[in-house]
Amino acid sequence: MPNFGAWALALLFSLVPLFAFAGGGDDHSHGPEVSVPVAAPATSGERLELNSPDVELLGILSDGKITIFADRYATNEPILNAKIELESNGRTLQLRAMKEGSYTAAADWLKQPGAHEVVVSVEANGLQDLLIGTLQVPGLKPEAHGRAWLNYGKWAAGGIVGVIALLVLFKRMRRRKGAAAALALPVFAAFLLGGHSNPGFAHGDEDHSEKPKTQAVGGVPTAPANSGIPAAGTAPVRLPDGSIVAPKPMQRLLGIRTVLGEPRDIAKTVELNGHIIADPNFSGRVQSSQSGRIAAPGGGFPAIGRKVSKGQILAYIEPAASSIEKGNQQAQLAELASNLGLAERRAARLEQLVGSLPQKEIDAARAEAVSLRARRAAVAGSLFQREALRAPVSGVVSQAGVVAGQVVEAREVLFEIVDPARLWVEAVAYDTTLSGQVAGAAGVTAGNQPLTLAFIGQSYQLREQALPMQFAVKPPLPTLSVGQPVKVFVQTRQAIRGIPVPQGSVMKNSSGETIVWVHASAERFVPKKVKVQAVDANTVAVLEGLQDGDRVVTQGAALLTQIR
Fold it and tell me: How far apart are CA 87 and CA 113, in angstroms?
């Protein structure tokens, strides 16, 4: 009986580890939280990526249906209204067009595990291409629930061998009549069997380790199931290396476009600061030639922004004189009036003596009367006549600071007139070696309005240690104002080797480094650190960091940079 009880107790101890399973898959990790981004494709299904110099195709096989996204390789522009056929395993599929350059068809036979040779033909407006590739469909893998039955078989075999060895040892000890040893052996056997059992898991697949868990999809590590990051969806995801996986539908939504990088010789460019000035040939100033009081013309004073014509009266100046000056002029006027009366009467008397007197005396009397009359008119005009201020050129009033009754001084600027279609840019260069090296120029305003500039000339006299340079703004002109700041890009006769890309392609990463996004594959974008130099208002040259043939993102680069 004691031996039977000992063996029963040993059997109970050996079964304890087998029943230590309960609950769900909780995670009690005490290590630091690690955010593991999704590296698998953003949408579920097997993928087929094909490309040629003209076309890039992304095929997704899911639930017995294949969907193909067709884009132009260089620009990432969707190919619309194309005719796409797929051939594989002796079968041909005609894919029907969906929205935004996607095409789909049912293909249940492609679900069979293995490698499927695929031939895709694409026909669109001005485009014909044939692409060949292989679609890999992996076989199904049996799911493991906790510990596999093979593990149980391995430990069970070891347990049987251990029990047999214990039984042999027990028989030998009974011959020696060792009751205490006989009682201890079953307990030792229980612990031995328990050691060969599977480790117990509180709450099933619960893991109390200090390391973050990852899963794998197609051999690519992904986030754990409870990490809060979906393993499949349509949202773009940033990977640990900084690259971004952006599903094709999201690329359509963001309007991602690219340009093929081609190294070329580009004129070396120097950036200068400048401002808008008026063309001196089509602008003017209205100044007072004397001190006086302002008077309005018949139509009133012209307001700023109003168009005026050459010779148009803008204002009047009533001469300002002191009382003494006015008195002297009035006295002179009275004297002239008196002398004029005498001269007229004398001329009248002499005309009655025609034939008795020489004709020259009569003509002299008449001339004296005419002269005195003109002198009186001149003195009277200087005393009471107003001066008309006229527009020197046709254009738009850019400055007007007069009111009726205002007293102004001589040479004071009262109006400024400019022609908004004839403007210049004046810039300053601190590098005097730039003189004589100008091959072309372009500009951009603070509001990113591009300007086409023509070099006019440069000064050979420094102004505040800088060299003034002037450029004419070629039409069409945006809305500009005199004095408006402008950035000027002067192209020199020196050349540099680089890849031209739009200004909008250049971004700053979180470290403040200059980067561009490169379209590495159908759904993957990689940031590359670059060294750039401005070419004009809309273009920069990438001097370092890109390779020939890299597809640089031109539209949507700012949106890709914001993805975290």
Answer: 17
Cα(384)–Cα(367) distance, rounded to whole angstroms? 26
Q: Give the residue ranges of DSSP H helices in 101-148.
A: none
- The band of 423, judged by pLDDT with boundaries at 50, 70 and 90, is very high
Domains of the chain: 257-277+419-561 (2.40.30.170), 284-417 (2.40.50.100)
pLDDT of residue 49: 94
d(CA 28, CA 428): 67
Task: Give 527's strand partners.
Answer: 517
pLDDT computed for residue 392 by the predictor: 95
- 3-class DSSP assignment, residue 180: helix
Q: What are 184's two structure tokens?
A: 């201890």
Where is 151: in which H helix or E strand?
helix 149-175
If we measure between CA atoms, which residue out of 213, 272, 188, 150 comes closest to residue 10?
188
Hunting for tokens 């612990």 — which residue is that?
A: 191
> Per-residue pLDDT for 516 more than 90?
yes
- Reported as a single tens digit per residue, the pLDDT across 324-378 is 666 777 777 888 888 888 888 888 888 887 777 788 888 888 888 888 888 888 7
**CB-count exposure of residue 84 (10 Å: 0-12, 13-18, 19+):** buried
Q: How far apart are CA 130 and CA 408, in angstroms?
A: 83
Cβ pair 504, 558 in contact under 8 A: yes
Three-class DSSP category at 132: strand
pLDDT tens for each residue of 502-512: 999 999 998 99
Q: Give every CB contact of residue 534 below 8 A, 6+ residues apart in sequence.
A: 269, 271, 489, 503, 540, 541
Query: Could you please report the per-residue DSSP string of 197-257?
Result: SPPPBTTSS-B--SS---EEETTEEE--TTSS--SSSSS-EE-TTS-EE--HHHHHHHT-E
3-state secondary structure 402-416: CCCCCEECCCCEEEE
> For residues 103 and 133, is the Cβ–Cβ distance under 8 A?
no
Q: What is d(CA 315, CA 295) in angstroms, rounded to the nearest whole number? A: 6
Q: What are the φ and ψ backbone dihedral angles of 282, each rounded to 5 degrees?
A: -130, 35
If phi over 0 gives left and psi between -120 and 50 gives alpha, with beta otherwise, what is residue 125? beta
Q: Label residue 158 by pLDDT band (50, 70, 90).
A: low
pLDDT at 142 over 60: no
CA distance 358 to 350: 10
Average pLDDT, the chain: 79
What residues have CB less than 8 Å from 381, skipping those under 6 apart? none
Give the strand pairing for 244-245 and 237-238: antiparallel
Q: Is the pLDDT of residue 219 over 60?
A: no
H helices of 259-399, in order, are: 323-352, 359-384
Say if CB 95 and CB 103 are below 8 A apart: yes
Considering only residues 145 and 223, tell me which one the structure prediction assigns the higher pLDDT. Answer: 145
